[in-house]
Write a structure and sequence with these properties.
single chain; alpha+beta; Rossmann fold; six-stranded antiparallel β-sheet; elongated
């Protein structure tokens, strides 16, 4: 049986570049656009960049951790790569699509694997109106920001903001405030993954807000629409003993 065509890509760090050279010297490889599987070497940030860069092809990506956190990555090892890939478990994810409208009327669209976050740009708290599926749910939220997280991203920024951890198969999204001031007791919501969230920025001239889809930032936004993009599928590969669903469950029991 023919082996899959592999492409090796790496983050700019010295360790990741060295890892790529070592793997490329041991295994035949092709350019990413010709690969059956892309092996991404680095950390979670680089994995997100790789997924976005190649999402039109929906090519599977197998991450190897030579970064900091590595939640979306497998352990780095140079041996038995074909054997690991043969038994790797696939996870399919749908990203969030953000459509942001800026104060000058321009629009920007971006995709996010982890979350879309709205954040205050100045020392003053933001004032936001939250609408879900055409129904205003919060007339005004005074806060440092708010985010919508996917299950895969629920253990990242969302967890740091005290949002819920979401199992992969739950088909829900987390809507989590960041340092909410009013209403003080509102802790967020869990929404169906088919929901569309619209966030309007109140007093945008005095209290400007930026919108961030993973690492794509749009400043001075006046409104943002966020919904799951079901037409786009991302495919991640994990070693059986390090599958993503188990990692997400495990995070709920970390002391």
């Amino acid at each position: 049986m023919a082996q899959p065509a592999l492409a090796f890509v790496a983050s700019p760090t010295r360790e990741a570049r060295r890892g790529r050279r070592q793997l490329a010297s041991r295994y035949p490889h092709v350019p990413p656009k010709e690969a059956d599987i892309i092996v991404a070497i680095g950390g979670d940030g680089f994995m997100l960049q790789t997924l976005r860069r190649h999402m039109k092809r929906s090519v599977p990506v197998f991450g190897m951790n030579l970064g900091t956190v590595g939640f979306l990555m497998n352990a780095y090892a140079e041996e038995d790569l074909y054997d690991r890939l043969a038994v790797a478990q696939a996870v399919q994810l749908h990203p969030l699509r953000m459509i942001a409208v800026r104060a000058d009327g321009s629009r920007r669209t971006a995709l996010a694997v982890n979350e879309v976050a709205l954040l205050r740009q100045t020392r003053q708290a933001s004032r936001l109106r939250i609408t879900v599926d055409g129904v205003v749910r919060l007339e005004e939220l005074t806060c440092d920001g708010i985010l919508v997280a996917t299950p895969a991203g629920s253990t990242a920024y969302n967890l740091s903001a005290h949002g819920p951890i979401l199992p992969l198969g739950a088909q829900v999204l987390a809507l989590t405030p960041i340092s909410a001031f009013r209403p003080r007791r509102w802790r967020g919501a869990i929404l169906p993954n088919a929901a569309e969230v619209r966030i309007e920025v109140l007093s945008n001239g005095k209290r400007p807000v930026s919108a961030v889809a993973d690492d794509t930032e749009v400043r001075d936004v006046v409104s943002v629409r966020i919904a799951e993009d079901r037409k786009t599928t991302l495919r991640l590969l994990f070693d059986p003993e390090h599958n993503l669903e188990e990692r997400i469950v495990r995070e709920q029991f970390v002391p």
